[in-house]
Amino acid sequence: MNTMNPEINLSKEAPLEEPERQYYYIEKAKKYVKEQMEKLGRQLTFCVVTFGCQMNARDSEKLTGVLRQIGYTEESNEEKADFVIYNTCTVRENANMRVYGRLGQLNRIKRRKPYMMIALCGCMMQEPEVVEKLKKSYRFVDIIFGTHNIYKFAELIATRFESERMVIDIWKDTDKIVENLPSERKFPFKSGVNIMFGCNNFCSYCIVPYVRGRERSRDKEAIIAEIKRLVADGVVEVMLLGQNVNSYGKTLEEPISFAELLKEVEKIEGLERIRFMTSHPKDLSDELIEVMKDSKKICKHLHLPVQSGSSRILEKMNRRYTKEQYLELVRKIREAVPDISLTTDIIVGFPGETEEDFLETMDIVEKVRYDSAFTFIYSKRTGTPAAVMEEQVPQEIVKDRFDRLLKRVQEISSEVCAVHEGTTQTVLVESVNDHDETLLTGRLSNNLLVHFPGDAGLIGSFADVRLDECKGFYYLGTMV
Ligand code: 5AD
Ligand code: SF4
Questions:
Q1: Start and end of every TRAM domain (predicted)?
Q2: Rounded Cα–Cα distance for residues 333 and 335 (Å)
Q3: Is the Cβ atom of 319 under 6 angstroms away from ligand 2?
Q4: Would the pTM count as exceeding 0.85?
């Protein structure tokens, strides 16, 4: 975590440069928080609620870092917290509905606790209709900001303390990446690391390119320096994050490939495991497959969203590969890394999907035999090309297909998982089991979990565990 500059002088104007400007506002907000704590005669607490993907989870760690620095302490129950932040997702419609529902709840609490602060950020805030609705019907919200200016969180908090009004700051897009801001980690031993932001793919169903903007890669030096700092601070596993990591570096002044970046990350001493997400099949290079094959640190897991098994639908989705190309890619990967675990995302009910198209999806699932698959019902997102396509598939049909797919995906997944039964594998011990305190939970290189008896002192270290029994999508084991 970055430390604050003790020389920040609040009687001077805010610096214009970043990140100095934010450190100035952190000091300022700290003063307001302290005043309020003195008035109330107690500590103030915060709760960050994260919806959606790993990118949002990482962003939430950044929000947490700022809140801690300005003097708030963490409270896991949002109903008790003095500052509640929803870091939202808008990939599917139901994510939005959940936010509105929970906001209603918060409003009731805030009526009793007027000094309470509510902030909203993340992908949903990048949709103009959402902000309009909030301005009209959710006046009790204090701060609204988007995905491009999350680094300004401290400044927005200070601004809210100084004004009586809702603070709204949404940018349409940005080419800026601000480095060296405070950040917290949920786990001391593993961390997400952003390597790029945004997406240029415009899959026809997807809202991400509109709410996360154009692709921007971080400089290699900044990424390596961050990972080295993390390792010095006890991290042994990193997850390199981007909407499409396979196109990392293409837009940098000195272009570099994702495979080359991985080779550099591999060299970092003390780092034991490397994961990354998400890969787009169309950009997954032979060079990357080679690097994965030769690596000692890259985990044996690849998340490779297929979305559909029908080449006709894939074209309408603007995915830029066919079923055959995807299967060929899977063949090449498995040839190079035979024991790799493959996972995927699948959408059911894309506009125009016929029973025949759906059977192609069932077929690709049969052929690839995924270790696990996230299955989604197509959700119409206003502003995307697919939203105005004709032939939206009736709900009952989609539901029926979804159930059939899910059943098969789960059957295959438990069969695939059972293959490792009886083997001994190295796991990173992550936590004490939620349901049974005598058990620890460890993660295999292939991302599966195993629960085994052990002492909590092992958390954060590696252990060899025999996988005694497969329970469908996890194992019970014994340390050897
Ligand atoms: N409807 C349903 N699922 C979607 N996804 C993205 N957009 C939509 C949508 N409009 C899914 C994709 C993607 C995952 C993160 O979310 O499968 O890979
Ligand atoms: Fe959305 Fe496609 Fe970009 Fe993934 S690659 S974020 S599905 S547009």
A1: 418-480
A2: 5
A3: no
A4: yes
